[in-house]
Records
---
Amino acid sequence: MVDSGDQARAFAQKMAPLPAFHATHVSHKHVEAYRIAAVECLRDGSGTVTLECGLVVGAPLGFATRGVPSAGDYLVRYEPTDTHPQGYLSHSPRAVFEAGYVAASRQPDGTGAPALTRDEADAVVERSTAPRVTADSITAKIAGSKFFRDGVLTICIITMRNGFTHIGKSACASPENYDQAAGERYAYDDAFRQAWAFEAYLLRETLTASAAERRGQDVTVEAPPSATQDTRSRGEPRAPRFDDRLPGGRPHP
């Protein structure tokens, strides 16, 4: 701990204002909780708390008097009251908190906000070691992109190195807000997002084939019949279509 007026003022300058309360976890009460990355404390127990999502918040007087939090513990914010209009801040050891609370979005009725912020979710994924699709792996397969504009509508066509294309679009409600560069950015991102599912499917197929090879199994995957394929070639009757019917409602054989 430190006890310097200059350092205290430096801490105060780094403090981020707390956003509106939004419960992330629930037990006998609703709380907002985030994993702690680092803590800097003064002798009065106040200081700053850096969260894993990158946000730096100010810790009130007495916050660390019962023990300085460790990385991985939780910063817990309770619902605002008349006494604490911004919500009372406390900390909880990770094991204690996770044993007593569950994420609000995991309640039986399925209500509540996502348990993690986007930054927190990204941090979890970045720690993954198994094969996965990444933005870099998708970008490496892109051959080029083209943009088209029609009024406030911007269209982007991303062409992959194998010739496959993804189409994205963006538009604004008020023509006065249109900006071509921004529209192209949003349209590109929309097209780029579509590539994730295709790349994930391809990776899943590759992993499945590799696992089958290790087990000595046949890795041939039969493609499903197309919507127009006549399944009678496999000995199955084809369901009659409306336009197959002869006068009088009798279907073709």
---
Amino acid sequence: MKKIVIIVGGIAGFSAGIFARLNGFESLILEKNHTIGGECTGWERNGYHIDGCIHWLVGTKEGTGLRKLWDRVGALDGVEIYHPESFLAVEYGDTTVHFYRELDWLQEKNRIGVAIISAMENRFPDMKDKLEVLDVATPQTYQRYCNAYKGAFMGFWPTIQGKELNHTGNIKGLDNMWLSGQWLQPPGGLPTALITGKDTIMRICKREKLDFKV
């Protein structure tokens, strides 16, 4: 049985390790920190819990290919997926600002701006009547100012012109080494880490002339 050594125990490393085992390889994950999980970790310091974990997870919709992949690696076992009415809420002191879909765009921008100024004035009374809303950033703001494709908040969203940004994971001059991780190809994030970990094992299986098993 051939061994695959995986450096760093984040989502990409776990994905590669799991699919390596599923395809008949021995896998060893090496992690320098005492806690594994990469960006999905938290730790205690001076009486506070520092949470570096995600606050939303893409690909949880039942029946989708990405959801099947999350289920295959066991990431959602025993996890209840909650779909809130608003897709984002920002809390500051006693004020919570909710962000909703499918509302009038300008009306929603104005509402958010007023809510943020109100929260700031409540927290800092000396700022009352001194604040002005210049703009409220939305996907259209990203598209207007940054030319981001369809307002993607990660500017290297895949396009026909951007194919060269997809890294194969191979490093020229280094045999038997592949890269996996969330920034290896657009749009980034944990789903990309999950997928690139799997893809690395697919490439190894192809080189070894083995049928890849999902």
---
Amino acid sequence: MSTDHPPRQTLKSAALAAAARGWRVFPLRPGTTTPAVQNWQQKATSDTDKINAAWDHGPYNVGLAPCPSGLLVLDLVPANGELPPLRHRSPGIQDGADILADLTDKEGARFPVETFSVLTPGRGLHLYFTHPHGRCPQASLGADSPLGWHVAIRSADSFVPLPVSTTAEGTYEIAHDGPVRAWPDYLARKLPAAASSRTCPGRAATQQEALPLG
């Protein structure tokens, strides 16, 4: 399936808007979620000159490095016909959003709908949070997530595409354009102590190296 890329200026504007929030971004290859730079963890930047120079090369999708941006992204993955593990099988449980809703209900908390969130082309949902106490949990994907089946944690050593990025499946779109909320305590308690022990670079740190594309 072919991909109609958003205009280069639209993608660059999205990257600059993220940088204005103090978020670190880097280019993804057009129409994909594949980094267009090596060592993207170190190359991600909020420097507007570097962003302008990078996106002047072409219609690159926009990748976000959550950890150095002071963020943690909860990735609620759709099931796409896959059955949940036996321990999660109960009426109404079909995907990652249902798992989080069930966990939230058991904790007597509210589902975190007020935070900035992004709808993925696969109809999943990315919920953005500030990471707890300046500590950056290790990324946990798939069955390894301490929060449950299809509730992935994207933070250290992981990235997410930002809205207006487009793939063959569709476009990442803002679901709720609100402020980024703090990581809820009831979810922080579910993380192993070791997963919360990593310190990531602060937002004030600068990137001295340019973003070579290749």
